[in-house]
Amino acid sequence: MRPRFRRLGRRGNTAIEFAVVGLVFLGLLIGALELAFLFYAQIALDYATNEAARTMQVGTNRSAATSNTTFETIAFCPQLGTMLNCNNVTINLQVVTNYQNIGTGTTTYNAGNTGSLMLLQVYYTTGLPSWPLNVSTIMSAAAYLNE
Predict the structure, then answer these.
(1) Is the pTM of this model over 0.85?
(2) What angle do CA 9, 23, 18 make, to 5 degrees?
(3) How far, in Å, CA of 121 to CA of 90, rounded?
């Protein structure tokens, strides 16, 4: 009787080992997919921020973008890409006079005048679960001088 129980025990060991290794593998796979999405989101956010800053710098959209909402729809969101939701974006555009008093995380909008030194900060809330990388917000910034 003992050899039969020993054989059944080995089959159970294999199932338990597979369950433990499978959970670790699944966690690594989810972490890799989340990291890949965050890299994509950061690159897309940087691109959209730089393009929006460039259009504002040369004055292409400066007169049309009179508020934060119109700036998002005219200058920023068309550059953002299809995989990122523009509703998760917070934009802070301000004139910089003193580098020590730069506001962060606020939703201000000031397009400035010709010759103004500008700072465009964009925050994107990812909406991903907090496990395994615990990243909820990514940020991009661009500084430029209005022409």
Answers:
(1) no
(2) 25
(3) 8
Q: Residues, the chain, total? A: 147
Phi, psi angles (nearest 5°) of residue 129: -65, 155
The whole-angstrom separation of Cα 38 and Cα 23 is: 23
Q: Order of strands across the sheet with 137-145?
A: 89-95, 117-125, 137-145
Q: What span, in angstroms and rounded, lies between the C-alpha atoms of 50 and 48?
A: 6
- Name the residue ranges covered by the structural domains of the chain: 2-145
- Strand (E) or helix (H) holding 77: helix 77-80
**Residues 89-142: tens digit of each pLDDT:** 999 999 988 777 776 667 789 998 899 999 999 999 988 876 777 888 999 999
In degrees and rounded to multiples of 5, residue 145 shows phi and psi of -110, 125
Mean pLDDT of 41-68: 91
Using CB atoms within 10 Å of the CB of residue 21, give its burial: 0 to 12 exposed, 13 to 18 middle, 19+ buried: exposed
**Is residue 90 within 8 Å of residue 104, measured between CB atoms?**
no
CA of residue 81 relative to chain centroid, distance: 12
Name residue, tokens 């003193």. Answer: 98
For residue 127 the two structure tokens come to: 């909406």
